[in-house]
Amino acid sequence: TLLYTIKFEDMAWQRNEAPPTQNYYQETGSGDVAEPVVNFLKWFYHFIERNEIYHVENMYEDGFYKISEFYYKDKMWPAPEKVQEIVEEKDEGSIFMILYRELYYRHIYARLKPTLEHRFDSYSNYCELFAYLLAAEEPVKIELPNKWLWDIIDEFVYQFQSFQQFKSKAGKINDEEKNMLRDEDQVWKVTAVLNILIQLTEKCNLNDQLQALEEGEVVTEEIAGEFGMKPIYTMTGFFSLVGLLRLYCLLGDYHMALSCIENVQFKDKDMMALVPACQITANYYAGFAYFMIRKYANTIQLYQHILGYMQRTKQFFQNRSFQVEDINKKNDQMLALLAIASTFCPLRLDESVNIQIKEKQGDKVARIQHGDITVYDDLFFSGCPKFLSPVVSENPTSPFGSSGPRGMQLQVFKAEVEQQRLIPTLRSFLKLYTSIPISKLAKFLDMHENEVRCCLMAFKHKKEIAKGDGGEQTTLDIDFYVDKNMIHISDTKIARHYGDYYVQQVIKLRDSNKLIMSAALNPVAAGPTPP
How many Å is the Cα radius of gyration of the chain? Predict the structure, then answer.
């Protein structure tokens, strides 16, 4: 333990100055709390009180997880009351105690099994934290790392999702827990969670800021307001917007989900790029929302971009073992959805993405190509999130059937698969002709002529929807029109746009040069050195 303590202190803080209190290494009031943990808590309290964000970020991203792994791998951190004694904080409602309780309950969710009381207390603490930001008459002075702000919003939505899933398992809830749920029926209510996230985005006039940035304007206090000029409000508001996107997708309201991010630019230099986990989450849920409203080209565009980003930054995540599992899961989910989207809307995929699809889903894609539509169910379940019902009843007979909201979303997807079933065959015949009578095509397909007309209309409709907002052409795209009983086909080959490609590379080079020059003129300030 002594060797670990020395190694940990050298790695985490690299400081030689005196500790903030004289009884720094004493265990007065700490009981059975290990000395390095007391050390960590006092320094953490010290830096948060002084608003030294550089050290807070270091201790949050590095120290908290290392101590959790070493001392609290399968047990809880010290109770908040104990920590209040250790850091000698008189006010249990201080911002440090609120933040510590947020970490305390998050650790329970991540490594242990939370009780119903834990779920209630965690929700109460989140309400206290958000009230601290929202009820303030003037901007709060505290600043927190972007990563921590994202984790707070992400965990808030996750704990709501976990609570709804807990309530839906009526057969596993005992009578005492049922009585507690009836008494506390306002806890983790979907309208309350949505309201909090919406208020956080409105507090900093986030949509006005995003519109100004999209138009190339400088965000001023007139646009953002007094609160919007503070990073803690702007970043919390932006992460709340991504939280709303995620929550609406879980509830199955995809148009509302996309309306939340209508002003968000999915670029590497956007706000979400400051926290890679936020960028991955936003792209996944936005792509899934486009997928469910049948705009497959938008899904493919988003997933290609983020999968390439994840491939390039893989080494960064490998050094953070606690993130690797979540990142790999999102990667596999997007590959499964991309395999479906690319069959419905054939677009050229990047070679690296094609290789990943073949490695992960190659056998299932091959079965689809051979006409096995049952594979779609497996791919959909592999790629979709865990859907929620906005209302959870104590009645064990769910209105969604035995498979719950997930089964209902699958039925919607299977209806789309059924509509798409004949389109590949229809396309293959049309590619062979420049004109063909409907009666002849009906014989080939073994269908009635009126059914063929319906299929042709469906083909036209699906082709236009699948292009998405960008209007991208598919690699197997054909165009046709029906004149009385004759189908006229024009085979559309996509010409390579060399000029556009050249211009894009010139723009990228210009942006890279600007970035290099700005970095040279404004070097990033190094961290504090030991006194």
Answer: 27
* Mean pLDDT value of segment 505-510: 84
The answer to whether 280 and 327 have CB atoms below 8 angstroms apart is yes
The answer to whether 20 touches 43, Cβ cutoff 8 Å, is: yes
Please count the CA atoms within 13 angstroms of the CA of 47 that sit on its side-chain side: 20
- What pLDDT sits at residue 23? 40
Kindly state the tokens that stand for 509.
Answer: 């080079």
| Tokens representing residue 102 in the block | 């947020």
Using CB atoms within 10 Å of the CB of residue 90, give its burial: 0 to 12 exposed, 13 to 18 middle, 19+ buried: exposed
pLDDT in tens, 107-137: 999 999 999 999 999 999 999 999 999 999 9
How does residue 394 score in pLDDT terms, banded at 50, 70 and 90? low
Cβ(52)–Cβ(141) below 8 Å: no
Alpha-carbon span 125 to 120, nearest angstrom: 9
Cα–Cα distance, 147 to 506 (Å, whole number): 33
Question: What's the token pair of residue 476?
Answer: 């197997």
Q: For residue 168, how many other CB atoms are within 10 A of its CB?
A: 18
| pLDDT at residue 527 in the model | 45
Number of neighbours of residue 421 by Cβ within 10 angstroms: 14
At residue 98, the 3 state secondary structure works out as: helix
The pLDDT tens digits of the residues spanning 353-388 come to: 888 998 888 889 888 877 788 899 999 999 999 998
Write the single-letter amino acid at 320. Answer: R
* Burial class of residue 178 (count of CB atoms within 10 Å of its CB; 0-12, 13-18, 19+): middle
Name residues whose C-beta falls within 8 Å of residue 280's C-beta, 6 or more positions apart in sequence: 306, 309, 310, 327, 330
Query: Would you say 360 and 382 are in contact if contact means Cβ atoms under 8 Å apart?
Result: no
Cβ burial, residue 253 (10 Å; 0-12/13-18/19+) = middle
Structure tokens at 290: 């486009």
Round to whole Å and give the CA distance between 30 and 51: 25
Spatial separation of the C-alpha atoms in residues 222 and 229, rounded to whole Å: 10
**DSSP conformation class of 271:** G
Q: How much is the pTM? A: 0.81
Calculate mean pLDDT across residues 78-92.
92
Which residue do the tokens 């202190």 mark?
9
